[in-house]
Write a structure and sequence with these properties.
Number of strands of chain C: 0
Strand content of chain C: under 5%
Number of helices of chain B: 13
Structural class of chain B: mainly alpha
CATH architecture of the largest domain in chain B: Orthogonal Bundle
Distance between the termini of chain B: 45 Å
Signal peptide (chain A): 1-22
CATH superfamily of the largest domain in chain B: MetI-like
Radius of gyration of chain C: 25 Å
Protein name (chain A): Sugar transporter
Radius of gyration of chain B: 24 Å
GO cellular component, one term (chain A): ATP-binding cassette (ABC) transporter complex, substrate-binding subunit-containing
Strand order of the largest sheet of chain B: 1-2
CATH architecture of the domain at 97-260 in chain C: Orthogonal Bundle
Keywords (chain A): Signal, Sugar transport, Transport
Number of strands of chain B: 2
Largest sheet of chain C: none
Shape of chain B: globular
Pfam family, one (chain A): SBP_bac_1
Largest sheet of chain B: 2 strands, antiparallel
Structural class of chain C: mainly alpha
Number of domains of chain B: 2
Helix content of chain C: over 70%
Helix content of chain B: over 70%
CATH topology of the largest domain in chain B: MetI-like fold
Number of helices of chain C: 16
CATH topology of the domain at 97-260 in chain C: MetI-like fold
Oligomer: heterotrimer
CATH superfamily of the domain at 97-260 in chain C: MetI-like
Shape of chain C: globular
Chains: A alpha/beta (424), B mainly alpha (280), C mainly alpha (326)
Order of helices and strands of chain C: HHHHHHHHHHHHHHHH
Largest interface: B-C, 104 and 109 residues
């Protein structure tokens, strides 16, 4: 099998294959079917790529690598943590998995991922987005390869802004933002639809104040929601949230805030730019009436800090086709496909050097402004447990429904501390 | 006529209670179906309408058009039918032995079956996974079938045992006198009487296996052709949130087989549960 | 019909008989104590339970004595830590709060389920044919609704912005319920889950109890009425004692099922807000699958099983007394 695979591979792959089969040939029995070709299985998340992009990429990839039979499997968000766990621990794992950037650390720590540090230079790692590359690394080794990023911007209704006489370009500070939103919040029109548990947004406000979600204290992590800075961030969130009818006990997914905005009575939401497509899709009359501006900062000199969301690609140690997996990663995270992907999906490409690729897309361009102030959640395996239980959401709901903010923050901080230190 | 009136009046509270029961039972079902038929804009309306103003089949179309629709149904039907039939056959044998025979260890067996009801299946998922992995049984519908079989087996044994106990052994004895063998007597005389009990218990098994998500998500990994319906139900959540209309449409389709079967067999189920459970 | 047979049998059941008498009765049932048949018949069940239940359970017990996290799941080289996991749990005040909440949840649910189910069963028995069919069909429909679907609908009904419950309450003049965030308050979320679990459980209990009621001989109630007993009195001293075994069975099953209620809570609140709706199974899954502490999760489940058995010991004792009578 090794022989045929090598014979079919291009010369650039030759070295690599020898390198990788050295450690994976022992378990290579699964690849023996299909004439020595690699049966490459890749897991991407639902809606991380459009069907059209997926087809275009698969066709091109298959044409360029006829020896690799690529199967892209779309995974559902519900129960994904368990699914990835099950995959990593199995004997025949998928070969490439898309993993949320904040989730990489826990899997890396468990020894279930292939260390790709040596490939960093080959992949152009020097210009990777920090918000993706840093969470993808654990103890100095690179396990997650930056795939794409997205951060929140304000999606607004141009017509409603115009009618209220508000100029979005003039909104540079939070105070101006509040004033403008108040003006827009009249009658049954909501100034902003901000659900009570949009914790990514809160994280941004807290960072702006100089606070953080959790801080490292010696060897252990501690929740930091009860610091004066973090409380100031929450107070601003509360002020903003009150300028609309967002439910205080739900997050932006229930119901999808884009669909609520499609209802026509909402002037702004905080969302990734892709949300605008969903709005237009649900209510075609709003097409062309949606604009974007970066989340305003505390002061006018820089935009607000935002959470860099996004995904990394990882290779499970149990993958039987690690060489082919790397070929796939190199293609998808390479400049050519990154530019196409960013345009097709309104993403921030994985390298800072590619930022200009999305200049023509107003949403992505706005996002890129915010991305300069992009931040990530604490880079530790324990953070995934915090997100899974999410005491931050409960805290936000408590603070918004009139409970004592300081007390609720202290409680949530204690829970964050516990979750981060109990988890593996 | 004159005696009719007061009795009717007297029955008023009774009928009010009945109406309330029907209303409370059916409202969520009704809400699921009408939500599935409403356009998205009416679903996210702060003034919900009891009767939809506009109707659409769009959500059903989304649900049916989801990739792998037919595959999901086929797999779920296979797994469910397999688990239910297996547990019926196995449980029938055990229930017969318990209800009709005296043997050493019978009491311990009954106790064990009862305790098996308490199995913490949510936490057995990791050991089951490890065992399946080490015996190369991951990614197979057979594994799921076996797990669902085991989840429903104890309940099936307990209820069938009660059923068999209600059938007077004298009936079978009479048949044996007429020249039937013992199994023959059981098959010809007792089995027809057991039909309602078998239906009641198999429906319970059906519901359990049909609904299960955690094991289906954890044990079927790379072989996507083996995924079951509950996984399909969760596919209407995307990065932007849950598509409520499609979820409700999918839920309606998902509930339909169970609802239909239950309604058809309603009489058997009720009479069956009664006779089955009386003997405890 | 088995039911007609049932009508007379309980009355004629002999009191605990001396050994020879019972042997004679067994003898009547052919091939009583002898032969391998009973063992062959239960063999599949026993083997199935051994491999598919006991073996995984033993592995789970093993895990609960090990340091077992994601790393060990992947590499499989766990080492023993003795009772450390149990110690960690039992000394955690949060765990005890969860235990107390589990019992509260179970008790509230079981009481409500039993009372409502009994009322519905009694009502159904007194209804005319049409109404009875209607009530039974609705019960069956509610019962057949998939748990996930029902939970999703309930979540939607109580949505603070778009839910029909808030809309109805507000329309009825209760303005404090305008956009009332149900899932923000621990107690409110707890109440919604109780409503959901009761709604899902009553059909099974009510139908079973109703069918039991149909087996109670009408003459007995009639003669009690002639003796001047009131409706409540008849219920208490004639009807209930007759259907006692079935009431106990339903009670026992409901205890087990509500103690293990998981899917509803997981889908609806994930145990929140805070810990307000975290009961033991939710706690175990949260620890095992979210924090990847499979060891602690296993230990929590084992404790759950022990606690549940404690509750059910009473039932088992009663069941065996009954067994002896046979």
């Amino acid at each position: 099998m090794k022989f045929r695979l090598l014979a079919g591979a291009s010369s650039s792959l030759l070295l690599l294959t020898t390198l990788l089969t050295a450690c994976s040939s022992g378990s290579g029995s699964g690849g023996s079917d299909g004439d020595g070709d690699s049966e490459l299985t890749v897991w991407l998340m639902r809606d991380s790529v459009s069907a059209a992009f997926q087809k275009e990429f698969t066709d091109a990839f298959t044409a360029a690598h006829p020896d690799i039979h690529l199967t892209v499997q779309i995974q559902e968000w519900d129960g994904i943590g368990q699914k990835v766990t099950a995959a990593l621990a199995s004997n025949d794992a998928p070969d490439v998995i898309e993993v949320g950037n904040t989730q990489v650390a826990q899997y890396a720590q468990s020894g279930g991922l292939v260390d790709l540090t040596g490939k960093k230079a080959d992949l152009g790692g020097g210009t990777w987005l920090k918000g993706l590359a840093e969470p993808g690394a654990w103890e100095g080794k690179q396990y997650g390869i930056p795939y794409y990023a997205a951060n929140r911007v304000v999606v607004y209704r141009k017509d409603l802004f115009q009618r209220a006489g508000v100029d979005p370009a003039a909104i540079r500070t939070r105070q101006q933002w509040i004033t403008a939103t108040r003006k827009l919040n009249t009658g049954d029109q909501q100034g902003i639809y901000l659900t009570g548990q949009t914790w990514y947004a809160l994280a941004g406000f807290i960072w702006d104040e100089g606070g953080d979600l959790a801080v490292r204290d010696g060897g252990t992590w501690k929740g930091a929601l009860d610091t004066p800075e973090a409380l100031a961030g929450m107070r601003f969130y509360k002020e903003l949230q009150a300028l609309g009818k967002g439910p205080k006990d739900a997050d932006e997914a229930n119901p999808p805030q884009a669909e609520v905005m499609a209802g026509g009575k909402v002037a702004q939401i905080i969302s990734v730019p892709g949300g605008a497509n969903v709005i237009a899709q649900h209510n075609p009359r709003l097409k062309g009436k949606l604009g974007f501006f970066p989340v305003p900062g505390k002061t006018a000199d820089k935009p607000g800090a935002v959470f860099t969301g996004g995904s990394d690609l990882v290779v499970p140690a149990a993958s039987r086709h690690q060489d082919a997996a790397y070929t796939f990663i190199k293609e998808l995270t390479g400049d050519t496909w990154q530019k196409k992907l960013a345009l097709a999906m309104s993403y921030v490409p994985n390298k800072t050097s590619l930022a200009s690729a999305v200049a023509s897309d107003p949403g992505a361009a706005t996002m890129a402004v915010g991305a300069a102030e992009g931040r990530a959640t604490p880079n530790t395996p324990g953070w995934a447990a915090v997100e899974a239980e999410n005491p931050i959401k409960d805290y936000m709901t408590a603070a918004l429904t009139g409970r004592d903010m300081r007390q609720a923050a202290a409680k949530a901080s204690a829970e964050i501390t516990r979750a981060m230190n109990t988890a593996s | 006529m004159s005696s009719f009136r007061p009795s009717r009046l007297r029955r008023l509270p009774l009928h009010a209670g009945a109406a309330l029961t029907v209303l409370v039972c059916l409202f969520p079902v009704y809400w699921m179906i009408t939500t599935a038929l409403k356009p998205s804009r009416d679903i996210q309306s702060s003034e919900p309408h009891l009767v939809p103003h506009a109707w659409t089949l769009e959500h059903f179309r989304t649900a049916v058009d989801a990739p792998g629709f037919a595959q999901f149904w086929r797999n779920s039907l296979l797994v469910t039918a397999g688990a239910v039939l297996l547990s019926l056959v196995v449980a029938l044998a055990a229930a017969f032995a318990v209800a009709r025979m005296r043997w050493r260890g019978r009491r311990q067996f009954v106790l064990a079956v009862f305790i098996a009801q308490m199995a913490p299946w949510e936490s057995l998922i990791i050991p089951v996974y490890i065992i399946a992995r080490d015996t190369d049984m991951l990614d197979r519908l057979t594994t799921l079938t076996l797990v669902y079989f085991m989840i429903t087996l104890p309940f099936t044994v307990i209820v069938l045992r009660g059923f068999i106990a209600t059938i007077p052994p004298e009936l079978e004895e009479a048949a044996q006198v007429d020249g039937c063998t013992r199994p023959g007597a059981f098959r010809r005389v007792a089995l027809p009487l057991l039909a309602p009990g078998l239906m009641a218990t198999s429906l319970f098994g059906f519901i359990t296996a049909w609904n299960e998500f955690a094991y289906a998500n954890f044990l079927i990994i790379k072989n996507q052709d083996q995924r079951t319906l509950p996984v399909w139900l969760s596919s209407f959540q995307n990065t932007f949130g849950t598509d409520w209309g499609a979820t409700m449409a999918a839920s309606t389709l998902f509930a339909l087989p169970a609802l239909a079967v239950f309604l058809l067999l309603q009489r058997h189920v009720t009479s069956g549960l009664a006779s089955g459970a009386v003997k405890g | 019909m088995p039911t007609t047979e049932e009508r007379t049998r309980p009355r004629s059941r002999p009191a605990p008989a001396p050994a020879p008498a019972s042997r004679r009765r067994d003898g009547g049932r052919a091939h009583g104590r002898s032969g391998p048949w009973p063992y062959l018949l239960v063999a599949p069940t026993v083997l199935g339970m051994a491999y598919l239940l006991l073996y995984p359970l033993a592995r789970a017990v093993l895990i609960s004595f090990q340091d077992f996290r994601l790393r060990q799941l992947i590499s499989g080289d766990a080492h023993f830590v003795g009772l450390a996991n149990y110690r960690a749990l039992l000394t955690d005040p949060r765990f005890w709060t969860v235990v107390r909440r589990t019992f509260l949840f179970m008790a509230v649910n079981v009481v409500l389920i039993m009372v409502i189910a009994l009322l519905v069963a009694l009502m159904t028995e007194r209804l005319g044919r049409v109404w009875r069919g209607l009530v039974l069909s609705s019960l069956v429909l509610a019962w057949a609704m998939p748990v996930v679907a029902a939970t999703t609908v309930f979540q939607w009904l109580f949505h603070s912005e778009f839910g029909i419950v808030n809309w109805t309450l507000t329309s009825l003049g209760a303005h404090s319920f305008e956009r009332y965030p149900w899932f923000a308050h621990g107690t409110a979320a707890f109440v919604i889950l109780v409503v959901l679990v009761v709604w899902q459980s009553v059909p099974f209990a009510a139908i079973t109890l109703y069918s039991a009621l149909t087996t109670v001989p009408a003459e007995l109630q009639e003669s009690a009425r002639l003796d001047g007993a009131g409706a409540f009195r008849i219920l208490r001293s004639v009807t209930l004692p007759l259907i006692r075994p079935i009431v106990m069975l339903v009670l026992c099953l409901e205890v087990i099922w509500t103690f293990k209620a998981f899917v509803q809570i997981w889908v609806m609140t994930k145990g929140g807000p805070g810990d307000a709706t975290t009961i033991l199974p939710v706690y175990a899954v949260q620890t095992a699958l979210s924090q990847q502490r499979y060891d602690l999760g296993s230990a929590a489940s084992m404790i759950t099983v022990v606690l549940m058995s404690g509750v059910l010991v009473l039932y088992f004792r009663q069941m065996f007394r009954q067994e002896d009578e046979r």
